[in-house]
Amino acid sequence: MQRALALVWLLLLGALALAQDPAGVEVLELRVTGARPGVVDVDRGSLDGLVVGDRVRFAPRDGAALEGLVESAEERTAVVTLDDARAVLAAGTRGEARIPASRAATPEPSPTPRKRKSTAQQKPWRNRDEEYQPNQPLLTRVRPLRPEERPSRITGRWYAIADHIQSSEDERADSFARAGLALDGENLLGHGERLRIDGEFNWRRTDVPDDGDETLTRGRLDRMSYSIGGTRFDSTRLEFGRFLQSGMPEFGVLDGVEWSARADDGTRVGASLGFMPEPDPEQSTGDDFQAAAFYRWSSDPSERWTITTGYQKSLHELDADRDLFVLDVRGTNESSWRISGTAWLDYYTASDRGKSEGLEPTQVLASAGRHWDGGSSLDLTYTHFAYPELERDEFGFWSSSALSDAHHDRIALASRYVLGRAWTLRSRLGGWVDQDQSGGDGELGLDARELFGLGSTLRVAGFGTQGRFETEVGGRLGLELADDGGAWQVEYELSDHRIDGFTGDNNDLPTHRAAMWRDWHSTSGWSLSARLEAALWDDEHALTLGFYLQRSF
Description:
Elements: H1 2-18, E1 25-36, E2 39-42, E3 55-59, E4 66-73, E5 78-82, E6 94-100, E7 153-167, E8 172-186, E9 194-207, E10 214-231, E11 234-244, E12 253-262, E13 268-275, E14 288-298, E15 305-316, E16 319-332, E17 337-348, E18 358-371, E19 377-386, H2 400-405, E20 407-419, E21 423-434, E22 438-449, E23 456-466, E24 470-483, E25 486-499, E26 508-521, E27 526-537, E28 540-552
Antiparallel strand pairs: 1-2, 1-6, 2-5, 3-4, 3-6, 4-5, 7-8, 7-28, 8-9, 9-10, 10-11, 11-12, 12-13, 13-14, 14-15, 15-16, 16-17, 17-18, 18-19, 19-20, 20-21, 21-22, 22-23, 23-24, 24-25, 25-26, 26-27, 27-28
């Protein structure tokens, strides 16, 4: 526990030391369009300023932030490898990447206008910039529109997701389907406000040989909120309804109200009040009340380097529950050094039976790294997780001894080295420890671009994992063929799992996995990801078929 706290303070000191760099930074917002364990696809790409090696931070609805590195970037999409190889993010999860202002996306060139035919009746051209002075900004005489003066408009997206898994074990079949709609209305009532609605319908069916078949349908409302302010004309912002808290997403989804204010130097303060919906499919609300506040220091108006502190007090059925402090440090400088660290610190008193009195780091996500212009990068990450003691049933019920001891700590070093124009060497080495065991893992891979033509990438990798009860060794071979609309990808993986505690032929479990998927997008806002995957081990096999369809408007 003390090591986790010490690492956060080191990141804090490092941020203060590097924050003197004067480089500007842009915050690029993005969303997850598809996911598989440890990997996500996002709706931003090279035309938006995103490049391989950029670090991306995601904010799921439960506030448990995740980070990752851009693995590949097409014009309008990118693939991000998460620090947690087991994590699966829901489609639509919001994220952001901090990129140098010098690399920020520039507008695409507009088509060359057709020449107009000159006529005798055409009025002579007159220069309307006679009063312009050379030392003035180019748009100095253009008055910007206030939010309430802008035309009303509605943007958004709708999506459909479906997966079917067929397994020979017990002849089981699982089918999942999700359909959702997200709407963002701007200035609909003429006050410069934003109305946002995000809902989803879920369907699931499980077929088994006996009479235990199950079908489940459920609707859910993830967001319905009204916000006003928070613009260049109004430094204060007010939002109420159901929403993921904006000032400090680590505090999670709120049924209530949030207020924040921003100073000219980028400093922010804010507070929120309301109920916390249960983090389950029903999202029932009314049992858990919270009050929270935060303060964010910024090195400059672009918020290139920020240090945020926050406190959340919650009540469960009117009984005092959680005292949560959050410390967040992040930023980058001109030489492409980047540091980020978020720590959830729970404060316990003598009334908490399963914990010692004082502060305990419940969760820590920390990383430090360097990105070079040629595409090479080096990143060190550390994660820590322990279960907090809560009256709210968020993680299930634990005994006092298990609650006190349960933890998971992992440290990993990932590198990318560009060998000329076509070759890239990738490596990852990590180690972990929990209350019962410890282990390590590593991977070494080589990417070859344009070996099979323009837009092709061949990926070869070997990997291994050593745990207390299992050892895994394997290799992976993949090929990506990019085109104007997206990319085709195929992948084959062979691994052997040696399980301790068995004798004879039962201690080795070879696994074959083959996958093929197609990612496609259009300039009109359509995107599609379709995936077919097969797994074979011993006498059993499984087949997975899935797709993700989205239309942005």
